[in-house]
Amino acid sequence: MSEPPDDALTLASRPGLPADYLYLREAFPRERWTTGALHPTARRWLHMHGGFRAHQAEMGAMVEVWRADAIDAPTLHRTLIPALQQFLQHLDGHHRIESGHYFPALRRLEPRIAAGIELLDRDHDAIHAHIEAMVRTGRALHEAVAGGATDAGDRVERLAEVLDLAGPQLARHLDDEEDIVIPLIALRGDPLE
Ligand SMILES: [Fe+2]
Ligand SMILES: [Fe+2]
């Protein structure tokens, strides 16, 4: 069972990992992550996270075009909904592999970072609530547009609010997870290989 969450460490408000969890990054700092010699699993991990960041920025840009009145809700819907579906599918799959396979293995590999891994696992629960909200508001937008409803703009606004809320939290999680996982794999190898 996980420890009860420490409020100072909740995803919505923490500014980064506490110093206790950063010893791995100190041993293998970010400046060294860019080399081609980085462990392939760590490289794939960073690539995957880069994809989430790019995808998120792309959806944010689509919403901004709509907010600037440059496109109407049905036009936004045509590009945003498929992008959202793909994003959520990838993110959910990534979290399942991490929480189900990598996190337990990394914890066994480096018991000293167990509390950090538990924190990342709790982040997934917090992000899951955002995923559900994105599914819900995305579906509501789709139904409004498909049904020719006149309030599609309101539905876009609801979805945009959810995206705005989820964005910084997901970004925080990606950064913090990297600060633990990338140096750990770089220094100790992939525990699932
Ligand atoms: Fe994660
Ligand atoms: Fe991740």
Can you offer a commentary on this structure?
By secondary structure, this protein is mainly α. The chain has a single domain, classed as Four Helix Bundle (Hemerythrin (Met), subunit A). It contains five helices and no strands. Helix 3 packs antiparallel against helix 4 and helix 3 runs parallel beside helix 5. The longest helix is centred in the middle third of the chain and has 37 residues. The protein starts with 22 loop residues before the first helix and ends in a 5-residue tail after the last helix. Bound molecules: fe (ii) ion (2 copies). The site of one fe (ii) ion has 4 residues, from helix 3. One fe (ii) ion binds next to helix 3.
Q: How many domain modules? A: 1
Fold-level CATH name: Four Helix Bundle (Hemerythrin (Met), subunit A)
Molecular shape: elongated
Q: Quaternary status of these chains?
A: single chain
Described by strand count, sense and barrel closure, the largest sheet is:
none
Please write the string of helix (H) and strand (E) elements: HHHHH
Beta strand count = 0
CATH architecture: Up-down Bundle
User: Which spans have pLDDT < 50 for at least 5 consecutive residues?
Assistant: none
Report the structural category.
mainly alpha
**Mean pLDDT figure:** 95
Hey, roughly how much beta strand do the residues contain? under 5%
**Helical content, roughly?**
over 70%
* The level-1 CATH class: Mainly Alpha
Cα-to-Cα separation, first versus last residue: 26 Å
Figure out the total of helices. 5
Radius of gyration: 19 Å
Ligand species = fe (ii) ion
